Amino acid sequence: MPRRAQYSERSFGARAGAPGLACRADSVCERYRERRSRGGDPMAHIAALAIEDVDPEIRDSLQAMEETGGYIPRGQLTMARRPELVKAMSVMLAAVRSGTVERNLKSLVGLAVDIAARCPHTQSHAAFRAASNGMPVEKLRAVYDFEESDLLSEREKAALRLARDGSVVPNLVTEQHFEALREWFDEGEIVELVAVISWRGFLNHWNNIMATETHPLPAGFAREHLSAVGWEAGPHAAT
């Protein structure tokens, strides 16, 4: 019997009439399993370019990603068909990473957005990058059930609630979210958190729509460390 996604119902379950995350994630994975059972393979809707086919104007910046992170995200290689998008992505990423909110918290917030968006591709990337930068695997796993976790502070949980409830449609953020945030963050820092949430939302939409194939490095990391908390490659699995 296929393993059912084990997303926490308290942390990422049904809220305000929205279907629970486990239910929605399962529907995606069930369609993928059905396709595989008929002999089909997962495949991105638009193939990533080979690096030698990328416009020379952006090739160096993409190769720099491989040098620093171990691989080039395949979503970027798809986007490279329009080099201006890749350039804009680089500028926006630098802006999102700037500010006074610590990088580790931004990583946790990004992962929570990816979980709420049920995008296993971006979950694997976020977790792999965070772990590569020193984030303990136990803390990454804790995000999947953050409401129950003793590994996360109340400050972190306030940010994660904003990430979770700001990532669904319809949006579930209320004044209570901001009241809780103001106990820990100034308004500039709240703007930073919303920027991370919005940035990850773009990546989730892009990669879910494209069914971007996940590179073996982040996919292997997630398979080893996140499967127990519900991660499954689904339509993003490498062929």
Task: Describe what you observe in this structure.
With 239 residues, the chain is mainly alpha-helical. Helices cover 60% and strands 0% of the residues. The chain has one domain: AhpD-like (Up-down Bundle), CATH 1.20.1290.10. The longest helix has 24 residues, at 187-210. The radius of gyration is 18 Å and the shape is globular. The protein has twelve helices and no strands. Residues 1-6, 16-25 and 35-41 have low confidence and may be disordered. The protein has helices at residues 9-12, 21-37, 56-69, 74-79, 83-97, 103-116, 120-132, 137-143, 154-165, 175-181, 187-210, 216-225.
The domain count comes to 1
What is the terminal-to-terminal distance?
Answer: 22 Å
> Ranges with pLDDT <50 over ≥5 residues?
1-6, 16-25, 35-41
Separate helix tally: 12
Mean pLDDT, to the nearest integer, reads 87
CATH architecture: Up-down Bundle
CATH class equals Mainly Alpha
CATH superfamily (homologous) name: AhpD-like
Write the H/E string, N to C. HHHHHHHHHHHH
- Overall helicity: 55-70%
Tell me how many strands there are.
0
Largest sheet: none
CATH fold naming:
AhpD-like
